[in-house]
Amino acid sequence: MFDLHIHLIGHQDRLANQENVRNFLEAARRAGLNEIGFADHDMYLEDLDLPLIRRVAEEYPDLKVRVGLEVDYRAEDEVKIQAVLQTFPFDYVIGSVHEINSWLFDYPDQIQRHQAEDPDRLYLAYFELVEKAARSGLFTTIGHFDLIKLFGVRPHTDVRELADKALQAIAANGLVAELNTAGRYKPVGEFYPEEKLIREMVRRGIDFTLGSDAHEAQYVGRDLQEGVQFLRNCGVKRLIHFEQKEHLIYGL
Ligand SMILES: [Zn+2]
Ligand SMILES: [Zn+2]
């Protein structure tokens, strides 16, 4: 079992030092994982010490430790992102949309704006950015595919229709989707993505990886066993993890 969406420093909540790396690796052991991947937010890159993660990992021969990055996707930043990705040999890169036209829509105080928007337009604007992220060629993985639902606002139109082009782009470009368990702890109270989107992804041949999106060591591996069972029930037969952007296959 692995967890490839871990934030060592959270939102600049702690330092990227040896003690904190160890805390997360100990937590991974306690959670019964044999692989953990750090994917901090790219905006904190200067606060990170990625070679340190590789050095501390040597103390834990029972754990495979991967180093990735979660990038805030903005269409106008593609060149900048490309440059950032050259600075370290990342094992994988998660492309995530957290922002629509400079609106940081996933902040906890943004619920009213979600409720005021036309939900179909909101979902379409979000999925259009996910589609661009998938077509950019920058990422191995699309983070929390249906994050736009986080406050529980649902579209009038079937979400599969609204997400159609984004799904096409993910499939056509061989990107991997995440089963991200953090959605359970948001107002929406369910995994990202929801069941009918998982089934649609399976139908289109899209593969999955796993992530808790833990911003604290205590949440490493949270709900992943259940997540895997959920994927199995939806017809998922294998999971993907990464080494130097190569896909490694884990049969279910
Ligand atoms: Zn994210
Ligand atoms: Zn994250």
Describe the structure.
With 252 residues, the chain is α/β, with parallel strands linked by helices. It has a single domain, classed as Alpha-Beta Barrel (TIM Barrel), CATH 3.20.20.140. The chain is 33% helix and 21% strand. It has a seven-stranded parallel β-sheet. The longest helix is centred in the middle third of the chain and has 17 residues. The chain is globular, with a radius of gyration of 17 Å. The N and C termini lie close together (10 Å). Bound molecules: zinc ion (ZN) (2 copies). One zinc ion binds next to loops.
CATH class: Alpha Beta
Mean pLDDT: 98
What CATH architecture do you see? Alpha-Beta Barrel
- Shape descriptor reads globular
Structural domain count = 1
The gyration radius over C-alpha positions equals: 17 Å
Low-confidence stretches: none
Q: What kind of sheet is the major sheet?
A: 7 strands, parallel
Estimate the strand proportion: 15-25%
**What structural class do helix, strand and pairing data support?**
alpha/beta
